[in-house]
Amino acid sequence: MSSWPSAKARRVFAALKRIGWRHDRTVGFHKIMKKDGWADYPFSFHDSEELGPAILVKVSKTRTSPPSGDSGFPLGPRG
Question: What are the two backbone dihedrals, phi and then psi, of residue 62, each rounded to the nearest 5 degrees?
Fold first, then answer.
């Protein structure tokens, strides 16, 4: 069982903004996120959508830069 909680997409979007991602533009309902030194990230979830642990792990592994093993993602696993 994963120690990651489920979270609403609006909360994950806000967490990405807190760690330096910015909303660049919207294409359809995809919010294109940008961060210097990273490829653009199409955030493709509606605000009220519930994101499960598997999606949160994927987002944290591909969109954060771990300084010392910590994901740095504000919605990280419960410890």
Answer: -100, -15
4 assigned to some structural domain: no
pLDDT tens, position by position, 14-44:
999 998 999 999 999 899 999 988 889 999 9
Token duo for residue 52:
């499960």
Which alpha helices (H) appear in 5-75, and where do they start and end? Answer: 9-18, 53-63
Position 74 confidence tier, pLDDT thresholds 50, 70, 90: low
Nearest CA to 7 among 51, 38, 44, 40? 51
Long-range CB contacts for residues 59-62, cutoff 8 Å, separation at least 24: 59/12, 59/16
Is this prediction's pTM over 0.85?
Answer: no
Residue 19 lies in a domain: yes
Structure tokens at 38: 């990273």
Identify the domain containing residue 39 by its residue range: 9-62
